[in-house]
Amino acid sequence: MRLGFTPMTAGMLELEAAFRLAESLALDFVELSADLHELAPALQEPARVRELRRHSGVGVTVHLSYVDLNLASLIPAARQTAVERTLRGLEFAHQVEAGCGVLHTGRHYLRHPLADQLVAEALSESLAALKGASVPVALENLVLDEDDYLRTPEELAQLTRQFDLANCLDFGHAHIESNAAGEARLERYLELLDDTLMHLHLHNNHGQRDEHLPTPEGSIDYRCYREFLATFNGTICLEISSEAGVGRSVAHLRAVVKGDG
Description:
The protein is of the alpha/beta class. It has 10 helices and 8 strands.
């Protein structure tokens, strides 16, 4: 089980502190934020990231920008900017030798048959522009409110295969989606994504909103996924809202995989 964590979610902006925590918990990687790199490049300077990687043996993944960014925007200038920002994020991911770049698939604010078609075309153009990236792009499931564009596991799977991409499955997002839909969406994602799934985001919640709780809290019972987690060959990133919660989650998941959780 290749575990890592997201410093940004844990409220840790200091790069050295993030790598120290990863080392102390025997984690395999940290997930850097392209949004943070845009906002304050000095906090995640690529040369310093590579140096810390060499000294610690801790790898890196990158969550590509999503703040004020919409790859499915119906506004041409906004979509062009979103593509340009994403390409810069992929270049940052390449510079820090990231294992993957996690990508949100966009927002849709006008539900109408004509607008639906235009949004589909806009997102297709955006994803086509990312073709040939030197870092694997992992599309993330995101059905947290009515404006998130893709609404089902089937839609995410279809888009992933259409553009020959990979996937990041966020267990917390899928749990909220399952609760709203009244069906086991998490299991459906696992079934449909299967061979395209290379990265996970793990955290917990109570099925209503994105709380980013430690994995032993909330209403996701990770013991139900013990076999999957034990055999998953990709990277597993903890998106937990506190440094202490990261430590609790690491201990919890390792116990679960051993059958002691």
